[in-house]
Amino acid sequence: MSKLDWKVLFPYELVEPNWRFYSFIAILAVGFWALMAFPVAQFAGYIDPFYSPTVLIVPLPGAFRLTCYAYRKDYHRHLFKHPLGCANPDRGDSAKRRYTGERSAVFQLENLHRYFLYAGIAILPFFYYDFFHSLVYSGPFILRIGSLVLLANALLLTAWTLSCHAFRHVIGGNVDCYSCVAAGGVRKQVYDRQSWLNAHHEALAWVSLLAIIFTDLYIRAIAAGIPMDFTLLRF
Description:
two-stranded antiparallel ribbon; mainly alpha; 10 helices; two-stranded antiparallel sheet; 4 strands
């Protein structure tokens, strides 16, 4: 359906079709349904990522993700259509809507993102512990597909967290002169590598969200008896 057809059918729509936004809603809906219908905290050595230890401090990692710059761009532009990112009248925003910069209550809350970052970093080791636990929970070392799923989830969450714009500022955003001796060296190298990661921050934000939901659904699937988990290595 073309953009024109959409506006003819829904002349007062507040949201234009956007695959990210609707994918996000669909993922939340499926995840919430699974959480309520099949409550599983741990099964066969696999610890559900929502219970390790996210469930204990869920407001903090939830706020960290909600205030992420990648998501903020999407819901400000595509959901609220404000503030305008350009002068294109097709954006649908009204010229009567006054832009207040970062003085509004919403922006003030979003600016706490840099502090939620520390909570996001603090919980990362727990996801690697979940991977380790899945390897040795029964005594001998056993590597299964589910263990690789847990590892992939941990790595993607780490990549997304460390690609954060707030983390970029922590390691180098407060330096004015990288050509100076004191600001160069190892710190400059770390900053350059994080800059490459930061360029993929939005993609990592969505992929890591999909990963944590997939991991949760994978554990629930095998707990429900679906034969999809196989042993790859045992000794």
